[in-house]
């Protein structure tokens, strides 16, 4: 187990290096001139002389391999440069906005797990009955409705029509509810269907029949035998949900004016703020890889057959 974890951690620099190179090249190939954007933000006339000065100031006048090598050398010391827009260190900017995004993604993950487990279990236990039909219809709608459109619906209903919740900003649970539910919609629907399918697969296994034959209570059969053994694919999907939530936060934060790093990154895209976008992608990749590592460890702990390095386990 320890060797596996260390091996995965050793792969992290390689993954970050590959991501940084891809992001660097994509940003440079995208249309538009960051020097022109910088002049516009600085309210400097975009004359040819000023463009040359801006490119030289921002280091964009050098060949691409030199630009990447210089950036990589600084990034290895956690110096990701300064934002073209604010002039502040990029890492300071990311760390300022990151807690809001983690709060939103964490609340959405709690909603996903807290609602999908009882809904999925209920749908499996009441297969082809009304609770199952309602749950499947909800899951179908959840994977079909874009989270930004669902966010607009929530704002229209609970803010404009009912006046129950504030529509924008951050601060208190009442401002967290709508963006968290909007962000969790897709993951909630997918997880509910996955739990239902896993429960249906395990409920006809022999160990479940033997437990009932021994007179074990129905609650213990459902949760200690069926659900525990259906937990493996759920843990695997949790790692995917982290990526979905982090990616979806970029859009949801813009809808609800949530002051997170995703909304900050969207503004950086429009301003062609290369240092911010490169740092943003590396931070998000690190979080995603670490969360998937945690899921793999939980996967091995939950199922002794999958213990890494043990008999019958993966190498």
TrEMBL record:
<keyword id="KW-0812">Transmembrane</keyword>
<protein>
    <submittedName>
        <fullName>Nickel transport system permease protein NikB</fullName>
    </submittedName>
</protein>
<dbReference type="GO" id="GO:0015099">
    <property type="term" value="F:nickel cation transmembrane transporter activity"/>
</dbReference>
<keyword id="KW-1003">Cell membrane</keyword>
<dbReference type="InterPro" id="IPR035906">
    <property type="entry name" value="MetI-like_sf"/>
</dbReference>
<keyword id="KW-0813">Transport</keyword>
<feature type="domain" description="ABC transmembrane type-1">
    <location>
        <begin position="98"/>
        <end position="295"/>
    </location>
</feature>
<feature type="transmembrane region" description="Helical">
    <location>
        <begin position="279"/>
        <end position="302"/>
    </location>
</feature>
<comment type="similarity">
    <text>Belongs to the binding-protein-dependent transport system permease family. OppBC subfamily.</text>
</comment>
<dbReference type="Pfam" id="PF19300">
    <property type="entry name" value="BPD_transp_1_N"/>
</dbReference>
<dbReference type="InterPro" id="IPR000515">
    <property type="entry name" value="MetI-like"/>
</dbReference>
<keyword id="KW-0533">Nickel</keyword>
<keyword id="KW-0406">Ion transport</keyword>
<keyword id="KW-0472">Membrane</keyword>
<keyword id="KW-0921">Nickel transport</keyword>
<feature type="transmembrane region" description="Helical">
    <location>
        <begin position="104"/>
        <end position="125"/>
    </location>
</feature>
<feature type="transmembrane region" description="Helical">
    <location>
        <begin position="137"/>
        <end position="156"/>
    </location>
</feature>
<dbReference type="Pfam" id="PF00528">
    <property type="entry name" value="BPD_transp_1"/>
</dbReference>
<dbReference type="InterPro" id="IPR045621">
    <property type="entry name" value="BPD_transp_1_N"/>
</dbReference>
<keyword id="KW-1133">Transmembrane helix</keyword>
<dbReference type="GO" id="GO:0005886">
    <property type="term" value="C:plasma membrane"/>
</dbReference>
<feature type="transmembrane region" description="Helical">
    <location>
        <begin position="176"/>
        <end position="195"/>
    </location>
</feature>
<dbReference type="GO" id="GO:0071916">
    <property type="term" value="F:dipeptide transmembrane transporter activity"/>
</dbReference>
<feature type="transmembrane region" description="Helical">
    <location>
        <begin position="9"/>
        <end position="30"/>
    </location>
</feature>
<dbReference type="InterPro" id="IPR050045">
    <property type="entry name" value="Opp2B"/>
</dbReference>
């Amino acid at each position: 187990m320890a060797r596996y974890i260390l091996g995965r951690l050793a792969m992290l620099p390689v993954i970050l290096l590959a991501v940084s190179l891809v992001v660097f090249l994509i940003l440079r190939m995208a249309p538009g001139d960051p020097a022109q954007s910088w002049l516009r933000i600085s309210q400097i006339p975009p004359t040819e002389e000023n463009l040359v000065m801006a490119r030289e100031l921002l280091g964009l006048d050098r060949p691409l391999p030199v630009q990447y090598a210089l950036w990589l050398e600084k990034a290895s010391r956690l110096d990701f440069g300064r934002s073209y827009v604010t002039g502040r260190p990029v890492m300071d900017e990311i760390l300022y906005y990151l807690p809001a995004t983690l709060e939103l993604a964490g609340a959405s993950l709690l909603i996903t797990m807290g609602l999908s487990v009882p809904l999925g279990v209920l749908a499996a236990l009441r297969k082809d009955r009304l609770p199952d039909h309602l749950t499947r219809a909800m899951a179908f709608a959840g994977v079909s409705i874009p989270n930004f459109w669902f966010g607009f619906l929530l704002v229209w209903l609970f803010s404009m029509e009912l006046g129950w919740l504030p529509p924008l900003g951050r601060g208190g649970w009442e401002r967290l509810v709508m963006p968290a539910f909007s962000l969790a919609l897709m993951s909630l629907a997918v997880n509910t269907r996955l739990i239902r399918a896993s429960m249906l697969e395990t409920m006809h296994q022999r160990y479940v029949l033997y437990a009932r034959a021994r007179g074990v209570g129905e609650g213990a059969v459902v949760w200690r035998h069926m659900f525990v053994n259906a937990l493996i694919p759920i843990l695997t999907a949790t790692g995917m949900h982290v990526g979905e939530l982090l990616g979806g936060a970029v859009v949801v934060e813009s809808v609800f004016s949530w002051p997170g790093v995703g909304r900050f990154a969207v503004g950086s895209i429009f301003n062609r703020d290369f240092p911010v976008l490169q740092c943003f992608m590396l931070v998000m990749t690190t979080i995603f890889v670490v969360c998937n590592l945690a899921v793999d460890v939980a996967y091995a702990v939950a199922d002794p057959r999958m213990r890494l390095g043990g008999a019958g386990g993966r190498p």
